[in-house]
Amino acid sequence: MEYNSEEEFLKNYDSNSFDKLSMTSDIIIFSVSNKNQNNYRKLEEKELSILLVKRDNYPFKGKWCLPGGFLNPKTETLDECAKRVLYNETNIKNIFIEQLYTFSGLNRDPRLRVVSCSYMALIDKNRLSDSLSKNAKWFDVTLNENKNNIEIILDSGDEVLSFKVKKKMENTTERMDFEIIENDYLAFDHPLVIVNGLYRLKNKIEYTDIVFNMMPEYFSLGELQQVYEVILGKKLLDPAFRRIIKDKVIKTEKIQTGGGHRPSILYKYKGKKI
Questions:
Q1: Is the whole model's pTM more than 0.85, yes or no?
Q2: What is the pLDDT of residue 111?
Q3: Which of 99, 164, 218, 253 counts the highest number of beta carbons within 10 A?
């Protein structure tokens, strides 16, 4: 049928001629915090953590997942949905958050066709002033990589989860892609969200300042270097690290004392946290 105007087309338009789908926002929340250790003379080691919530309802009742929820198509944008879901499911708000990737696998949700716009959030969990929701828990992250196979171990201290993915490379874009090969603990396709988030974080701290969203206001250079190292999964030579951060931090008059180790000059981020 041909139309003579936009008004005529919209008047006769039948929205039921298209298949329906739902949109969700899923959020992977990263934090770096101090690791428990017995040697008080050493600088406290750091651990990378993510926040998971346990599902109360089917599907996947009793399994862990990332905070997430359905978009209200009439009242909110995807960004607004992500912030609402983050607060409702974890009691966390006003933190750095950015879009990560869109997941559109055909069978990612057994209820209906669901496309997820995932987000990555960063926080210094040692400075959280509000209590977490009762179903939310922090899990420390260990990444073991063997050629194209990756194992992720998530440890909350009283519960250990794990999954394995296979790394693939798209020929046309050279974007890294992943396939789940083993997963008994996490709901939906959230292992894919987690591993994509980990690699995005690794890449972005080398050319952006997002790492400072995970830092307290004042920190020593040793602490900052540890955060870089735990995210990158490798040791950094001091001269190389100083070159990375030399234009990003400001020396303050504050001194860190106590803990059994040598007093350290404290620095702060030169820019403005997002």
A1: yes
A2: 87
A3: 164
